[in-house]
Amino acid sequence: MCLAAALPVDQAGLMNVGEAIVRLLEGYGVDTVFGIPGVHTLDLYRGLGTSSIRHIQPRNEMGAGYMADGYARASGRPGVCLVITGPGLTNVLTPMGQAFADSVPMLVISSSPPSETLGQGWGMLHEISDQVALTDAITGFSAIAMTPGEVPDLIARAFALFATGRPRPVHITVPIDVLAMEAGDGWGVAQPPAPPDVDTSAVAAAADLLRSADNPLLYLGSGARGAGKDLQAIAELLQAAVVTTNGGKGVISDEHPLNLGTTVIRPTVQRVVNAADVVLAVGTELGNTDHFAGTKLELTGELIRIDIDPAKISDLYDAALGIVGDAPPIVAALRHALADVPGRRSRDGEIAEIRSAALSEMGFRQHQHLRLLGSLRRAAPVDTIVYADMTQLAYTGSFGFHAYEERQWLYPAGFCTLGPALPGAIGAKLARPDAPVIAIAGDGGFMFTVQELVTGAELGLPIPIVLWNNHGYQQIRGDMKQLGIEAIGVSGLNPNFMALAQAMHCHGVRPADGAEFEAAIAAALRADRPTIIEVTEDADWLVAD
Question: Is 42 helix (H, G, I), strand (E, B) or coil?
Answer without folding.
Answer: helix
